[in-house]
Amino acid sequence: MSNPKIFTVGITGASGAVYGIRLVQELLKADYGVHLIITEAGWQVMKEEHQFDTSDREKLINKLFSMDSGKLYYHTLRDFTAPIASGSYRNEGMVVIPCSMGTLSSIANGTSSNLLERTADVMLKEGRKLLLVPRETPFNQIHLENLLQVSKVGGKIIPAMPGFYHQPKSMDDLINFVVGKVLDSIGVDHQLFTRWGD
């Protein structure tokens, strides 16, 4: 039996790759296993937003997350033999962070043309947690209808909208708020922000 303390994280081509990076770091810190999938557009955004050298992708992943921990499993988009492509593989669920509108559309319509989309489809068909963190503005009607469609079939939408009641002092505070809300929704303890009333 596989370890249920495992999540899949998908990073797509929407702006805000840092949200996905921080989430993976926090999950590993909390002793969760992570299956990581990054789309081609996701790699491009990581290069543009962070000036990362993405020519050696596994080297960069190891630098960001330490694959030596034995808790991180990186998969390419075409790796349909990955365990997460099957509903028989037990895990806690999946977060797509940030979620581009193209990926949202594919998930909403059950396209399953790559491993990220297939894994999201598995989460929905198996009744497991699927969280999408869209990072787009403004939304058009197609975006909104796709978000509603995913919500209707069991997915949860957590827009990348940081709060300000915790008196953020830095960019990190804003990033941590969004990632903390994701961790709350998947039941993972964290200390990323001060809660209202604390």
UniProtKB/TrEMBL annotation:
Molecular function GO labels: carboxy-lyase activity; flavin prenyltransferase activity
Keywords: Flavoprotein, FMN, Prenyltransferase, Transferase
Residue numbers binding FMN: G13, A14, S15, T39, S100, M101, G102, T103, R135
Catalytic function, reaction form: dimethylallyl phosphate + FMNH2 = prenylated FMNH2 + phosphate
InterPro entries: Flavin_trans-like, Flavoprotein, UbiX-like
Domain spans labelled Flavoprotein: 7-185
SUPFAM superfamilies: Homo-oligomeric flavin-containing Cys decarboxylases, HFCD
Top EC category: transferase
Presence of the UniProt keyword Magnesium in the record: no
Any Pfam family: Flavoprotein
EC code: 2.5.1.129
Keyword Flavoprotein in annotation: yes
Coiled-coil regions, chain positions: none
UniProt record similarity statement: Belongs to the UbiX/PAD1 family.
Name the record gives this protein: Flavin prenyltransferase UbiX
Native organism: Anaerobacillus alkalilacustris
